[in-house]
Amino acid sequence: MRVLNVHLADHSYDILIDHGSLSALGQRCAEIRLIGNAAVITNPTVAAFYADTVASSLKAAGNNVTVIEIPDGEEYKNATTLNSVYDALIEAGIDRKSFIVALGGGVVGDLAGFAAATFLRGIPFVQVPTTLLAQVDSSVGGKTAIDHPRGKNLIGAFYQPKLVLIDTDTLKTLPEREYRAGLAEVVKYGVICDLPFFEILEKECSAIQAMDQNVLQKVILRCCQLKAQIVEQDEKESGLRAILNYGHTLGHAYETGAGYGTLVHGEAVAIGIALAAHISMSLGHCSSDDVARIEALLNAFKLSFEPPAVERHLLLNALTTDKKVAGGTISFICNSGIGGHIIEKFLPEQLIALAGLEV
Ligand SMILES: NC(=O)c1ccc[n+]([C@@H]2O[C@H](COP(=O)([O-])OP(=O)(O)OC[C@H]3O[C@@H](n4cnc5c(N)ncnc54)[C@H](O)[C@@H]3O)[C@@H](O)[C@H]2O)c1
Ligand SMILES: O=C(O)C(=O)C[C@@H](O)[C@H](O)[C@H](O)COP(=O)(O)O
Ligand SMILES: [Zn+2]
Question: Residue limits of the 3-dehydroquinate synthase N-terminal domain (predicted)?
Answer without folding.
Answer: 68-180
